[in-house]
Structure prediction request, 147 residues.
Amino acid sequence: MKKKSLGAAIVISIIMIAVVVVILTGVSTNNAPNPREIAYKQVDAAKEADKQREYTEYLEKTLADDILDAYPALTSVEVTLTGILQESDEKEAIVCLEVQEEFTADDAAKVAQVVATAIGSETTECIRIQDMEGNVLFAGEEPEGSL
Prediction:
């Protein structure tokens, strides 16, 4: 009888050692995700999101500075971009201008074309340009003859 209980004790000890090894090394036989791998993926995703946010902010500032430099009639420019790093058609740009002198609809259309090109859009349908009072200067129209 003692031989049976000694054999059972050895088998139980081996199973316990195997369980400890699996827990410590993260090796699993049921293909469950390793917590460390999940954490690393989350960190990588957060780093990528930070890079995308920083690039979007850089592009917004660069566009605002370039537009301000190109048009002396403007005293302030704010650019807000959304979805520009995605492959979808949901890209959008809103440009708010503080206009000091005359700024024509043609000027607004030119700014819209520049912004569309900068965000990789083939059309200006996703571009909205307005002054700081909320008056719409350009609302995503396509130039005539561009069908």
Q: What stands out?
A: The radius of gyration is 30 Å. The chain has a mean pLDDT of 83.
